[in-house]
Every structure is written in structure tokens, then in C-alpha cells.
Amino acid sequence: MNTDWAFGDGPNTATITTVKVLERRAPILLVTHDEDDGGWQFLCGTTNDDADARIVGLGTIVKWDASVNELADLPLGWRAWRESPDAPWHRGPVTT
Fold first, then answer.
1. Is the CB of residue 85 less than 8 Å from the CB of residue 27?
2. 1 lies in some domain
3. Beta carbons within 10 angstroms of residue 26's beta carbon
4. Tens of pLDDT along 22-51?
5. Residue 14: its pLDDT value, please?
6. Where are the alpha helices (DSSP H) in 1-96?
7. What is the dihedral of CA 5, 29, 63, 9, to 10 degrees?
8. Distance between CA atoms of residues 4 and 35, nearest Å
9. What whole-number percentage of the chain has pLDDT above 90?
């Protein structure tokens, strides 16, 4: 494996994103590292509709937006968010 790879999960790990992120019409503004299954979600924050969800490899997400490498150590059950693609990431536990 590439020593520059920041994530504990491999590049082929399936992640959840939105159709807008997939089609490059919206930036990634919200990332969650799910406590129940260890899954990653890379979201735009514009939709919560399950019909807009898409599956994409973690390596593709990193290729599209290298700033997500800053979140590779995001603990299970936490989220990270930002106001815009140029803004810093903020972190905190997912609250229900």
C-alpha cells in the first residue's frame, strides 16, 4: 500500500456520498465516520434524501478533494464540517 495513504481503510473502501458530489456539482462539506459500522460518508449538506445517496471508493473521494486527508484520524462516531471548500474543518461527536 502507498505509504502516503492517510486512511486506515483502503482506497477501495466503499463510502457514501451524494449525487451532487459524485457529479461534481457540490463540494464535500460534511464528513461522518459512523460508529455502528465504521463507514465513511462524504456529503454536500444539501440533501438528506436516500434517493440522492451514491456509493464511491474512498480513493476517488481523496482524489477529488485531498483536504479530506486531514480527517483520516476522525474517530468513530464523529463528524467534521466546514462552511466552504476553502474553510477549515471543524470536528465533533455526532449528536442525535
1. yes
2. no
3. 18
4. 999 999 999 999 999 999 999 999 988 999
5. 97
6. 19-22, 58-64
7. 30
8. 25
9. 91
C-alpha cell at 95: 449528536
Q: Is residue 93 part of a domain?
A: no
Q: Is residue 4 part of a domain?
A: no
Provide the pLDDT for residue 93. 97
CB 50 within 8 A of CB 93: no
Do 29 and 84 meet the contact criterion of CB atoms below 8 Å apart? yes
- pLDDT higher than 80, residue 54: yes
In contact, 22 and 60? CB cutoff 8 Å: no
Domain range holding 23?
Answer: 14-77
Using CA atoms, how far apart are residues 34 and 18, in angstroms rounded to an integer? 16
- Residue 84 pLDDT: 96
> Number of structural domains, the chain?
1
Residue 46 lies inside a defined structural domain of this protein: yes
